């Protein structure tokens, strides 16, 4: 796919704080891209730089190969939907959606047609005369989305777009957001701290840490093969065990376990997802461990077990309901996993 937006060595400081550290990024036309990270990772700063609300200290920001870092926000074919939605309380839904069109000088008849189409796209036909206070949180979110889409941007920036919605509405709205992105053909860039949201919606995910991209790729690839301790822990809360590479694979003293598999000599830790670990009646050898259940928490589809190993480490184990009744606190258990599920980490 053709590259729409490219960031080259973007650096931004706020006083002594380095928010973005020579960050490089490319976003393709028609791509749904997620910027994922914790507080202070730089994701919101990057979004504001793309929107034009912040100026980088150094580096280049290119749209279709043209530098836009000095271009004001209103002159960019980019729209941003804010986490707060930023609707005008004194305006009707239709007038809120039409606001940008009027500022751009679009004729009244064409604006009315485009507003009606945008409201239909977000399933708010017939809501045009209402005021924001007469809408639910999910409906206000749709109005903000319609106001962005009515401008027909080539790139739409979404700042925690589902953050104010309850769990059930978040899932449904997420699917609708993905469908709208496909329908419009615009590139969407979403900032979120919610890993499930990023994995479910995005074509590619960039995990940010300390103003840099720790890992970038398709959601499944990043989840199943994290590159660093940070990514492994942040995305899916994998077990990360320290140790050293050995002839048999990887020895972890804190776990009291040998992890068998193709382990590179520079490996300093391994990651193992909780759902990849199985509780079995008995097993010995590499990729097995014996421990004691310290705690258990029912989560619906599974029960999360915290299992203390001989070396002192605690493994998180997701015991599926279909595998029978989970062990109780204080039970001695045997754990096993496949060699392919052990991910070597070099940093």
Automatic annotation (TrEMBL):
<dbReference type="Pfam" id="PF08402">
    <property type="entry name" value="TOBE_2"/>
</dbReference>
<keyword id="KW-0813">Transport</keyword>
<dbReference type="InterPro" id="IPR003593">
    <property type="entry name" value="AAA+_ATPase"/>
</dbReference>
<dbReference type="GO" id="GO:0005524">
    <property type="term" value="F:ATP binding"/>
</dbReference>
<keyword id="KW-0547">Nucleotide-binding</keyword>
<feature type="domain" description="ABC transporter">
    <location>
        <begin position="5"/>
        <end position="235"/>
    </location>
</feature>
<dbReference type="InterPro" id="IPR017871">
    <property type="entry name" value="ABC_transporter-like_CS"/>
</dbReference>
<dbReference type="InterPro" id="IPR013611">
    <property type="entry name" value="Transp-assoc_OB_typ2"/>
</dbReference>
<dbReference type="InterPro" id="IPR027417">
    <property type="entry name" value="P-loop_NTPase"/>
</dbReference>
<keyword id="KW-0067">ATP-binding</keyword>
<dbReference type="InterPro" id="IPR008995">
    <property type="entry name" value="Mo/tungstate-bd_C_term_dom"/>
</dbReference>
<dbReference type="InterPro" id="IPR003439">
    <property type="entry name" value="ABC_transporter-like_ATP-bd"/>
</dbReference>
<dbReference type="InterPro" id="IPR050093">
    <property type="entry name" value="ABC_SmlMolc_Importer"/>
</dbReference>
<dbReference type="Pfam" id="PF00005">
    <property type="entry name" value="ABC_tran"/>
</dbReference>
<protein>
    <submittedName>
        <fullName>ABC transporter ATP-binding protein</fullName>
    </submittedName>
</protein>
